[in-house]
């Protein structure tokens, strides 16, 4: 009878291929699952970060521990996040992922320019006619806005007006970046500097959180003044 057994070398090659295929399949499946999980984590974290002051997720580093996920999130925001906001962010991420999460947030403060009165620098052109009927152009540039600083005699307390006004904001400088929001009828400390820019009077104030900035004087009314020493 003829021997129909496979050659020994073919059997050994098949066994080696099977030995290599099992761990390769395991790690390929694990890599695929981790990639899907990382994509899901990034989407959830980006969504929850956007809900906090309209912030933006720039980078996310995730380390898997036995009992939790360690996250380091780098975000861009125009209003610094408080400790309680970061705590709520961590809780919402953990709730969505159904896993314990340890979160560390690195903030990149981005300035947002929102001037009340945008300056215009467009020159105007006027034509005049000479007796020879040769037109000449005279350029009259728009004057450059100038700011005038003055000092108030003493510091005191002021309050924002109560009425149908646009949302009040605290500016880092007159017409500069916004650093906070101001509520109606909120009490502020009036500091010593006043500034006139484009016909609008700005005053230097400090809010209850200790932030110092500028607001238009027309939205405030005087309450008390600190007696001079």
Features:
229 residues, three-stranded mixed sheet, single chain, Alpha-Beta Plaits, alpha+beta, rod-shaped, SH3 type barrels, six-stranded antiparallel sheet, 2 domains
Account of the 3D structure:
A hairpin with a 2-residue loop joins strand 10 and strand 11. The chain is α+β, with helices and mostly antiparallel strands and 229 residues long. The N and C termini lie far apart (122 Å). The mean pLDDT is 77. Helix 1 (8-50) packs across helix 2 (83-97). The longest helix has 43 residues, at 8-50. The protein has two domains: 26-109, Alpha-Beta Plaits, CATH 3.30.70.1350; 146-225, SH3 Domains (SH3 type barrels, Roll). It has two helices and 13 strands, in the order αββαβββββββββββ. The strands form four sheets. Strands 6, 7, 10, 11, 12 and 13 form a six-stranded antiparallel sheet that branches. Strands 1-2-3 form a three-stranded mixed sheet, covered by helices on one side. The protein has a two-stranded antiparallel sheet with strand order 4-5.
Q: Which topology of the largest domain does CATH recognise?
A: Alpha-Beta Plaits
Distance, first to last CA: 122 Å
Unreliable residue runs: none
User: How many beta strands in the DSSP annotation?
Assistant: 13
Shape: rod-shaped
Provide mean pLDDT, rounded: 77
Determine and state the CATH class of the largest domain: Alpha Beta
**Judging by the overall fold, what is the CATH architecture of the largest domain?**
2-Layer Sandwich
Annotation field: number of helices: 2
| Total number of distinct structural domains | 2
Considering the protein shown, what is the CATH homologous superfamily of the largest domain? Cation efflux protein, cytoplasmic domain
Strand content: 35-45%
């Amino acid at each position: 009878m003829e021997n129909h057994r496979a050659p020994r070398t073919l059997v050994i090659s098949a066994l080696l291929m099977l030995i290599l295929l099992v761990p390769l399949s395991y790690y390929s499946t694990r890599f695929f699952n981790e990639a899907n999980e990382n994509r899901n984590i990034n989407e959830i974290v980006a969504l929850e970060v956007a809900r906090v002051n309209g912030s933006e997720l720039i980078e996310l580093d995730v380390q898997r521990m036995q009992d939790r996920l360690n996250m380091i999130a780098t975000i861009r925001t125009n209003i610094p996040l408080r400790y309680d906001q970061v705590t709520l962010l961590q809780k919402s991420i953990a709730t969505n992922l159904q896993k314990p999460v340890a979160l560390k947030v690195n903030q990149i403060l981005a300035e947002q320019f929102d001037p009340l009165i945008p300056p215009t620098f467009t020159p105007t052109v006027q034509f005049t006619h000479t007796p020879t009927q040769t037109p000449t152009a005279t350029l009259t540039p728009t004057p450059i806005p100038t700011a005038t600083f003055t000092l108030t005699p003493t510091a005191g307390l002021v309050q924002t007006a109560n009425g149908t006004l646009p949302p009040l904001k605290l500016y880092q400088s007159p017409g500069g970046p916004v650093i906070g929001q101001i509520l109606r009828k909120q009490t502020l400390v009036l500091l010593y500097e006043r500034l006139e820019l484009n016909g609008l009077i700005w005053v230097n104030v400090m809010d209850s959180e200790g932030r110092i900035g500028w607001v238009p004087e027309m939205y405030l009314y005087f309450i008390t003044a600190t007696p001079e020493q």
